[in-house]
Amino acid sequence: MSKGFGLSTAAKNTPVISAEKQSWYGLRVRSNFERQVSQLLRAKDIQEYLPLYKTRRAWSDRVREIELPLIPGYVFCRIALESRPKVLATTGVVGLAGSQNQPLPIDERELAAVRKMAETQSTVEPWPFLRIGQRVRVHRGPLTGVEGILLKVKSSYRLVVSVTLLGRGVASEIDAAYVRPL
Questions:
Q1: Which domains does the chain have, with CATH numbers?
Q2: Which of 53, 60, 63, 92 could lock onto 37 through a cystine, CB 3.0 to 4.6 A?
């Protein structure tokens, strides 16, 4: 079971001023390079966001609580497309998420929903991307205003927020009475 939140502090830093419009992009990164890429982007004064979650891991001799990327293989950054070469030259970056070799910006509402879920104290964990299911909006509690898909897993309900472009999702436990259909 995972619990908690995590985000890099650079996500709150002021981005480098640019005459071009800046958007959030998903960076595909090498396996287990998420933290390193996040730190390297910060060192280049590029606004980045790496959502993390806490989980317990058991080894043969101990159990520890560790932080892992909420969306493995991706780090988000806010850039103008002209800054793409500077970002792609970062060690560990494989490419920008997009379609047909064209980088596409992340929907800011989806990223804001992921951020809000990661910042709450409720249980948060990676979740498979879903296209089917009832879309709902939370109207009470710490996730008020977040839209997603309501699922029932065993005896509890989960709100799943999907990042469409990446084909990934994030789930959080929620009281079904706190949501309304869209």
A1: 9-105 (3.30.70.940), 109-181 (no CATH)
A2: 92
Report the predicted TM-score, pTM, of the whole model to 2 decimal places: 0.70
- Scored b (16 or more CB within 10 A) or e, 42-58 reads beeebbbbbbbbbbeee
Single-letter amino acid code for the residue at 149:
I
Is beta strand 102-103 parallel, antiparallel or unpaired with respect to 179-181? unpaired
Please choose, from the candidates 108, 126, 21, the residue with its C-alpha nearest in 3D space to the C-alpha of residue 67.
126
Residue 61: Cβ within 10 Å count: 5
- The CA-to-CA distance between both ends of the chain, in Å, stands at 29
Query: Which SS3 state, helix, strand or coil, does residue 70 take?
Result: coil
pLDDT in tens, 80-106: 999 999 999 999 999 999 988 899 999
Please, where are the H alpha helices in the chain? 34-43, 84-88, 108-119
Alpha-carbon distance of 176 to 16, in angstroms, equals: 41
The enclosing H or E element of 75 equals: strand 74-79
d(C-alpha 42, C-alpha 49), whole Å: 10
The residues facing 99 across adjacent strands are 102
Q: How many whole angstroms from its chain centre is CA 96?
A: 15
